[in-house]
Write a structure and sequence with these properties.
Low-confidence stretches: none
Distance between the termini: 26 Å
Bound molecules: ligand 6R9
Shape: globular
Number of strands: 30
Mean pLDDT: 94
Strand order of the largest sheet: 12-11-8-6-7-14-15-23
Structural class: alpha/beta
């Protein structure tokens, strides 16, 4: 087991909690026949129900093509356009309905409504602009945008043209953005001059300049930087526009006023977007998601698991820069023609009432957030929700395990006992939910996400590939036995790594075209109860989950190693009451270098620069040496145990066991 799952908090199985009767009556999934329809013997035909939520230009002929394992092709032969499905097809009946309600920061700014008609107009104009820049089907475009309506507008404009978008989380540094531009081979970057977060105006365009330099070093020329201008009257570094390269979108758009671009009917298996995620090695993985399978999967799971009806006001308080935002702010809700709330800022600024004020004002009735936010709001304003007159029917959590006592506050205080809570477990690679409860049909169990969702058949294997029986109480590696429409198609440009990472471990026969031989490795440790409910323990790879964000230990360590004094670095997870985990960096210095505050600061700065402030370590420890195996591998597990005041286990087989005690004295006395 990895350090993450080893230090996972363990709690006992909880009692079931039933949904409120008022919820059951109105639920999209209220008929148990749905569970029957998705029984394993009906797989893969059961997924026809999800495909039929979409409008196809050419209907597919083969539901699942397994001829080139594990590069599964869903809805083969079908053609569709994702933008058409999310925008155009809603115009006839719902032209004037809000597609997005945008709540900017500061709070004094008015909420902006973007109707389906307005969204249609804007998406077409931006698509016309991108087309005139020469972008065609299959080209990649990197977006580095904050939480503004321009972000989904750009995504949908790309989708309209069959262009693959790659949105890099706005909080990532210019360097991190540049790495992803180079990896995806984007020649166009779309960014914004600046944005507000927690009361501070950030000069975002400056990051684009760094990104272009980084990409060029890696061999990728960025030809155009398109800059959305939000603060035309303020001097940000957007003032330093590079002649011939940088253009303000608002200077170009007037040429495209009123233009329309036909949505390009794309093959179901054409890539829709890339979403970069952290993995075991330093190089980020561009998870490639398909057009037909992905869109069908997020539409289906949004309908049945988030219970989105056309009349709901739905708010997923994640950032579109992560997979949660792609699937459950943009594509899922829009495919269903819902109203989706976008908000800018953080939930705790200016105070712990921000979310509840937004919910009250906009009439939000479905709310989706992460345990780290719930923990923070519980600490800062435990009685705050009661002061606001909002009513949720449904609440979701995502991103990390939620402790039962935090779950209860969410259910009782935030949900006021009126809402169901759906704990959704999944990852960037899986496109949509893997484990969760169908809210009207399956009871909740705090701390467990639930069984596999419709059409997902999980299994837990031990290291040798034996099945760990349900109810045995033993943990193992959770896998999905079958393909599903939302699963990533490949890692962009690294097909071998894709096969090896997700299927290499438990594939029974590399020549087999029978999907039964290809279990998908999710990357988490888990325990499965007798009722099939999964309790997720954490990552089994070298990934640290900080406040729901995946940070690769290798990326953190590579950044620390750019500091000239640093010889070795280890990033370890440390349990944190609010954020679940935080990162502590351990570094050993080159011979002749003395520990100093300056070196610690340099390490922090290097991580800020190369990844972004979200990855900033909680502490930097300069230690005399790293505990190592005899073959020279740094034992992160041992360091993590020391940092967490946990049992380090047997260290006598290490090459340098005495260092463990030294580190313990240094670190534990300072904490
Ligand atoms: C969607 C998303 C994936 C990792 C995943 C797991 C953790 C996500 C969870 C959860 C327990 C949940 N995770 N949801 N753990 N309960 N409901 O978060 O994607 O950023 O790729 O992270 O997050 O460890 O492997 P991503």
């Amino acid at each position: 087991m990895s350090t993450e799952s080893q230090i996972a908090v363990h709690w006992r199985e909880e009692e079931y909690i039933q949904p409120p009767p008022g919820f059951i009556g109105q639920a999209n999934a209220a008929d148990p026949a749905l569970l029957e329809q998705f029984r394993e013997e009906n797989f893969p035909d059961s997924y026809r129900a999800y495909a039929d939520l979409l409008t196809w230009d050419t209907y597919w002929h083969t539901i699942l093509d397994t001829s080139e394992p594990p590069f599964w092709k869903w809805f083969a032969g079908g053609r569709l356009n994702a933008c058409y499905n999310c925008v155009d097809r809603h115009l006839a009946a719902n032209r004037n309905k809000a597609a997005f309600l945008w709540v900017p920061e500061p709070e004094t700014e008015l909420t902006r409504t973007l109707t389906y008609q307005e969204l249609y107009t804007q998406v077409n104009e931006v698509a016309a602009l991108l087309r005139d820049l020469g972008l065609r089907e299959g080209d990649r475009v990197t977006l580095h945008l904050p939480m503004v309506p321009e972000l989904p507008v750009c995504m949908l404009a790309c989708a309209r043209l069959g262009v693959v978008h790659s949105q890099v989380f706005g909080g990532f540094s210019g360097t991190a953005c540049g790495d992803r531009i180079a990896d995806s081979g984007s020649r166009i970057l779309i960014t914004m001059d600046g944005y507000h977060r927690a009361g501070k105006l950030s000069d975002h365009k400056a990051k684009a300049d760094e990104a272009v330099v980084t990409a060029a070093k890696l061999g990728q020329q960025v030809e155009k930087v398109l800059v959305w201008r939000r603060y035309p009257d303020r001097y940000l570094s957007a003032g330093d526009m590079v002649e011939g390269r940088d253009v303000f979108v608002d200077d170009l758009l007037p040429r495209h006023r009123g233009q329309r671009v036909d949505p390009v009917p794309m093959p179901a298996e054409a890539p829709l977007f890339l979403m970069y995620s952290s993995g075991t090695t330093g190089r980020p993985k561009g998870c490639q998601h398909s057009t037909g399978g992905y869109l069908a999967y997020v539409a289906g799971t949004s309908k049945y698991y988030q219970d989105i009806h056309p009349t709901d006001t739905y708010w997923c308080a994640a950032d579109i820069g992560w997979i949660t935002g792609h699937s459950y702010i943009v594509y899922g809700p829009l495919a269903l023609g819902a109203t989706s709330v976008l908000y800018e800022g953080v939930p705790t600024h200016p105070d712990a009432g921000r979310c509840w004020r937004i919910a009250e004002r906009l009439g939000v009735n479905i709310f989706h957030t992460a345990p780290t936010t719930i923990r923070m709001l519980r600490k800062l304003g435990p009685d705050e929700p009661a002061r606001y007159a909002y009513h949720f029917k449904h609440m979701t959590t995502v991103g990390e395990p939620i402790e039962p006592e935090v779950w209860r506050w969410y259910h009782d205080v935030v949900g006021k006992g009126e809402a169901v809570v759906v704990d959704t477990w999944w990852m960037t690679e899986t496109g949509g939910f893997l484990g969760a409860t169908l809210p009207a049909l399956q009871p909740m169990k705090p701390g467990s996400c639930g069984p596999g969702v419709l059409g997902i058949y999980p299994v837990i294997y031990d290291e040798e590939g034996n099945v760990v029986e349900r109810g045995s109480g033993r943990a193992g590696n959770v896998c999905i036995r079958n393909p599903w429409p939302g699963v990533l198609q490949t890692i962009w440009g690294q097909p071998d790594r894709f096969v090896q990472l997700y299927y290499g471990r438990y594939c029974r026969d590399a020549k087999s075209t029978d999907w039964h031989d290809w279990p998908f490795l999710c990357g988490d440790g888990a325990v499965q109860a007798a009722d099939g409910y999964l309790r997720i323990l954490g990552r089994i790879d070298d990934v640290i989950n900080v406040a729901g964000h995946r940070l690769g230990t290798k990326e953190l360590e590579s950044a620390a190693l750019t500091v000239p004094e640093v010889a070795e670095a280890a990033a370890v997870p440390v349990i944190d009451e609010l954020r679940g985990r935080v990162v502590e960096m351990y570094v050993a210095l080159n011979p002749g270098k003395e520990p100093s505050q300056e070196i610690e600061d340099k390490v922090t700065h290097a991580i800020d620069q190369q990844i972004g402030k979200i990855a900033r370590p909680h502490a930097v420890w300069i230690v005399p040496d790293m505990p190592k195996t005899r073959s020279g591998k740094i034992m992160r597990r041992v360091i993590a145990a020391v940092s967490n005041f946990a049992d380090v286990g047997d260290v006598t087989t290490l090459a340098n066991p005495e260092i463990v005690e030294k580190i313990r004295r240094q670190v534990q006395s300072a904490k």
